[in-house]
Prior knowledge:
Blueprint: E1 2-5, H1 10-25, H2 32-44, E2 49-54, E3 60-70, E4 77-86, H3 92-108, E5 113-116, H4 121-130
Parallel strand pairs: 4-5
Antiparallel strand pairs: 1-2, 2-3, 3-4
Amino acid sequence: MIVKILNRQIPQIWELIKFACVQADEVDKKEMPQYFNELLHALLNDKAQCFIRLDDDRTLLAVLITRIMIDRVTGEKYLFLQCLYSFKVIQDEVLRQARDLFVDFAKAEQCSYISFNSRHKRIWEIAEIMGFKEKHRRFDFEIGGV
């Protein structure tokens, strides 16, 4: 079962959200204060959304943070999957069901597409199972060490 967490419920699971984001987004320790201040503000003000997946015993299985974004080039609204962390392996059928739920959510928000970033090959595999297509890759060069 996937549940959308209301903004007033965020403080109750904030530590779990932080753990999931550190794992999934690989937040650098020095960037954590800014990252989490912005995320908490966004979640409390409905600028970001938190979904959790529970099993039949109401045990937490996964955390997902989303945001409704506007493409600066095309002006299209889209659903951005910011953070996806699963505490257990997710079966392919559950992935497809989750995709359908987020497609419905994106449609309700009048989004044209769903997008995410990841550098993890397993997440790429999951994306393909869910029907996503690779659009581009991003490469960064750190200036500080040169």
